[in-house]
């Protein structure tokens, strides 16, 4: 059928009401957002956004309301979609943006694709990977994996992906989203090693829209975290520790969830797997810890330094 592309949409969207179908690949996926309020009677007040791309560039795509429970879990990073009867809106200005793995990719930031259950009722089809043709020119998913030895030199707020062997995972903790608010963020601390440094990655993992993975992070699992942010310069003390925290677009994967993920082709992921083959499982298990209270950043040793 007649297809359009994202670049053409950006140039012509104001002069059209109906748009030709789009063929895109999902490069990033946000957590699911619930925006329900007691006074507003909405059946399914959910929203999720994705960054999708074709040969012309990348654009945001927003999934609304009852389409979220129906489609959110099947729309993975790397999935190819055929979209018809979608709407185009001007972009929401305050949304977060993931850092693309391919810095050369053009980003269309003025408009976004809106997928609704009506006005118009969007038609979504998932194209199986084995049916995707090279001539469609869809970009591959690219990552920004770093090793632990590279971490200390990275700037504050740098966006990266990591893989490591979990050596510690703390209990789930809660933090208020705002003072006096009844809403909480759920998070846990984890340590992961990759063999490139004596120090582990210190990871602050907020619960994303993957409860099945979040609850099953255990020592000795291979953990992949994407779109993490580097947090530098917490304290002035010489024992200053760098850590990584999740962003709105972070995805977390553990052993059992890796098969078929696009990052399995990444060179640094392959190097890590080679390193794990050289390790003795019994030795590593002795060094692992689970649960307990993990104060971070650590307080100084004495009151004088405090």
UniProtKB/TrEMBL annotation:
Pfam families: RADX. InterPro entries: NA-bd_OB-fold (IPR012340), RADX (IPR040893). Gene3D superfamilies: Nucleic acid-binding proteins. It comes from the Eukaryota. Coiled coil: none annotated. One of its GO terms (molecular function) is single-stranded DNA binding. This is RADX protein. It comes from Acrocephalus arundinaceus. The gene is Radx_1.
């Amino acid at each position: 059928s007649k297809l359009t592309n994202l670049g053409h949409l950006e140039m012509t969207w104001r002069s059209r009401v109906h748009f030709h179908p789009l063929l895109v690949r999902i490069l990033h996926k946000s957590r699911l957002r619930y925006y329900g309020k007691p006074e507003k009677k909405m059946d399914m007040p959910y929203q999720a956004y994705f960054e999708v791309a074709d040969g012309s560039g990348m654009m945001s795509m927003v999934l609304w309301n009852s389409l979220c429970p129906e489609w959110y879990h099947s729309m993975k990073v790397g999935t190819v979609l055929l979209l018809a009867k979608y709407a185009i809106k001007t972009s929401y200005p305050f949304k977060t943006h993931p850092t693309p793995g391919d810095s050369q990719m053009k980003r269309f930031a003025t408009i976004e694709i809106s997928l609704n259950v009506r006005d118009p009722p969007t038609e979504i089809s998932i194209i199986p990977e084995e049916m995707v043709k090279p001539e469609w020119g869809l970009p591959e998913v690219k990552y920004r994996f770093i090793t632990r030895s590279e971490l200390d030199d990275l700037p504050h707020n740098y966006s990266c992906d990591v893989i490591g062997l979990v050596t510690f995972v703390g209990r789930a903790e809660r933090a208020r989203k705002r003072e006096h608010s009844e809403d909480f963020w759920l998070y846990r601390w984890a340590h992961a090693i990759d063999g490139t440094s004596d120090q582990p990655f210190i990871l602050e993992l907020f619960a994303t829209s993957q409860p099945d993975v979040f609850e099953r992070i255990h020592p000795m699992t291979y953990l992949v975290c994407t779109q993490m942010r580097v947090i530098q310069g917490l304290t002035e003390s010489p024992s200053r520790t760098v850590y990584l925290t999740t962003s709105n677009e972070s995805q977390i994967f553990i052993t059992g969830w890796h098969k078929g993920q696009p990052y399995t082709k990444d060179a640094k992921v392959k190097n890590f797997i080679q390193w794990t083959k050289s390790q003795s499982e019994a030795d590593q298990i002795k060094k692992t810890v689970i649960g307990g209270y993990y104060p971070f950043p650590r307080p100084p040793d004495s009151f004088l330094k405090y």
